[in-house]
Inverse folding.
């Protein structure tokens, strides 16, 4: 069964460093997303991406964050200068469509720890 | 802004009992609703998707209902098993994004 794959599963980084989280969405999906879950809190939407453009982003997704689809299979989230409060589980998701009655499929997550 | 609430926050039942998990949302203009399962420290596994035009969706021992006009969904798990122990998340789709509830943590005692 097709699945969304995320690497690495766990990343530890020093405050102020740049990190790149990687995702391989399901191959025939067109919409890609990043969500995050701070420990003990709700899963929060960060950004949606379609046709090499951001289609929607939350207030969390400030200038420190960026997304990219560098090739036909990968989708990345970059955090330029990490802060302690960026420590969270980051989930990548993909769906065949963006709007409407479309199911989102999530990866297993990357646990980011900023020290 | 969409707000999603799940009640109860935690539930402990003996094996074999049926589970009832509730989800409510404030903005009824949704496209669909998904129920997910999350094991500790793990990812999100999609259990059921209910389209906005549907009232009910079933998969094995799982049944989910949707009352869009009143902003409610209920997930029923029949004949619970210890392997059903997990956190169950409800998420509603508006526009491009899903809004999640905080989840109901279920413990099924053997």
């Amino acid at each position: 069964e097709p699945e969304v794959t995320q690497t690495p599963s766990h990343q530890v980084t020093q405050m102020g460093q740049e990190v790149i989280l990687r995702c391989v969405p399901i191959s025939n999906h067109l919409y890609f997303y990043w969500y995050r879950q701070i420990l003990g809190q709700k899963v929060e939407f960060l950004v949606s991406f379609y046709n090499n453009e951001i289609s929607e982003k939350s207030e969390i997704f400030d200038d420190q964050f960026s997304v990219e689809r560098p090739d036909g299979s990968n989708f990345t989230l970059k955090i330029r200068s990490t802060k302690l409060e960026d420590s969270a589980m980051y989930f990548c998701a993909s769906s065949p469509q963006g709007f409407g009655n479309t199911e989102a499929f999530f990866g297993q997550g990357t646990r980011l720890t900023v020290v | 802004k969409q707000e999603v609430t799940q009640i109860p926050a935690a539930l402990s039942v003996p094996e074999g009992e049926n589970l009832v998990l509730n989800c409510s949302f404030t903005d009824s203009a949704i496209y669909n609703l998904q129920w997910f399962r999350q094991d500790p420290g793990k990812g999100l596994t999609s259990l059921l998707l209910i389209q906005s035009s549907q009232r009910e969706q079933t998969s094995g021992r799982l049944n989910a209902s949707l009352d869009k006009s009143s902003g409610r969904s209920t997930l029923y798990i029949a004949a619970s098993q210890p392997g059903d122990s997990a956190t169950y998340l409800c998420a509603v789709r508006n526009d491009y994004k899903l809004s999640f509830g905080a989840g109901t943590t279920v413990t099924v005692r053997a």
